Amino acid sequence: MSVVAPPEDGPAGTTVVGLVATDDRGVSLDVRRQGRTYLIGATRGGPIRFRYRLDFQHLVTDGSTSSGLDSQRLYAVTGSLFVAPDPTAYRKTARTYPEVVVEVLPPSGWRVVAGWQQANAAFHPRDGDDLLEGTLAAAPDFRMYSDSAGGAEWRLAIRGSRHFPDSVLASAIGASLSMAAGAFGPVPVRLVTYTAEVGHKGRMSGSLQGRSSVGLVWEPSETLERARLHDTFHETLHQWFGGAMTTERWWTEGATDYFAARLLTRWRQQPQDLAALCFESLRNYQRIDHRFRITMDEESRQHVAGDNTELLVYRKGMLAGLLLDAAIRDASGGRRSLDDVARSLLSLASTRRNRNVSEQEIGAAVAAAGGPAAQRVWARVVEGTAPLTERDISDALAVVTGQTFTPPAANAKVRKQLVR
Ligand SMILES: [Zn+2]
Description:
By secondary structure, this protein is of the alpha+beta class. α3 crosses α4 and α5 packs across α8. The two termini are 37 Å apart. Zinc ion binds next to α5.
């Protein structure tokens, strides 16, 4: 059996130290190293057990959203920390993931906050994807909170000095989970963890989701108002869109951004939040040069680079959510909305192992909920590249909120952010 060590130039710069292997009776097996590959000699069939230590070379995070490791801090979101065996390779080849036990041995005084049920016990992931979900935070200065909402437990590990009290973030997390559960059904996972870290001054704020693991890295000066609350709701919603259901990126990111804005608006009871976020999307969309040239799907397939202010899948995707929602509400006399479409897609996804829903199926669900009027919006916005105008947005906002909003000036400041 050969085992390949992760590349040392990866995000955390990991080195494998002291790899030992035994058979299932505990008899030591011969291990020979050739570069990054370890060859384990087995004399008979049956399971092979191995353990190793990972040393981390890059002590400070390379990206604002990946992982950070030094004597003061240890936190990781998604696959940054756990690197072997590679869950993606196993998923692609449909092999059964080997039994893995993860145990964190923190220095004294540190606490482990992990995306598994008993943070201080060994972790037995069910499969590779479960392993990738392990948010981890352990440092003496993290402040810990936990509660339940929407049928799931949540944990928050936060540190650093902020312009807002921890309780504001904690209540936003609880609200995002319970409001999303109210709209789309119970939280699809048992436990959601949030790690909130102060980022570097002058860098873009970032949020990252690994489905049930959410990392929020915000600049020191950030306040927890509309923009960052919207991010928090967006990340929470990835439990449903991106987690319980996967599909085209414009839905997973853009429609999710729209739902996040609408749920936030309902929570704060400030319809102007929805209008401000949608007009901000419009202004960013109007600066995307390729908006009349390619559709959102084509942008995805061509791997166009950019942050979320520069990509159609986010900015036009959010507006697509608004315009489809308004068309469905209008056509059904307010009896149906895009939420009905989302619920039917989630129900479809729940019957499938890969949880995938096709764009055709989204289109069919939109047509079923909103008829020809919604189909016309679909053809123009999702399948087409025709310009979206201020008037489109104002009219749709009027349908959804019952109020009239005036678009802000076209030179309004662009909000830079990194939400995944
Ligand atoms: Zn996202």
